[in-house]
Amino acid sequence: MKVREGLQKLAHLALRVFLRIHCGYRVRGKVRLERPSLLVANHSSHADIAAIFCALPIDEVPRVRTAAARDHIYAMPRIAVAAIEFLFNTYPFERKNGSSASLEQGAEFLRRGHHLAIFPEGRRSRDGSPLGFTPGFAKIAYRTGAPVVPIRIVGAHRALPRGTVVVQRLPIEVAIGPPLHADLATPFEARREAYARLVRQTEQAIRI
Length: 208
Description:
The protein is an alpha/beta fold and 208 residues long. It is built from 7 helices and 7 strands; from the N terminus they run αββαβαβαβαβαβα. It has a 7-stranded mixed sheet, with helices on both faces.
């Protein structure tokens, strides 16, 4: 395990160098991961997850688990899936039927001390405009008490547009917002509105 983590960190150091030189990658704000956290971001490109990981302290990389679409990422050739799993610690997330089990798996990762990266838009925006968040991450936050770290990714849809595999020399920027917290005192019967409120707060934090 330590060998794997060491190799993974080396790969991420190389990835950071590449994005900074090739895309002028930069980060505004700082991720504070004092406890297992939900890393919630907008989604417009396959480069998004790399942009998130590059914003994290390198020692936190092995602790992150990433929800990846079972019907898309896990439908890729096996060698591609293996590379993605190695780099980003992905697990198959069911976007359609069975999403409850996938959400619970994400919650369990947090309970075990991992961070969870998730894209609640559920699909990639073609032009970078927001598509609206589904409430799954909010449910996880209320189940676990994990803070929600809002992350805005700008420019990834131009650097690696949908349907392409070559990263363009175009800028990518990541902005980290202050963590948001679920109100765990909310009674169960009022949770639906509480989920919606946390979704709105996170969307607003990412759009600012």
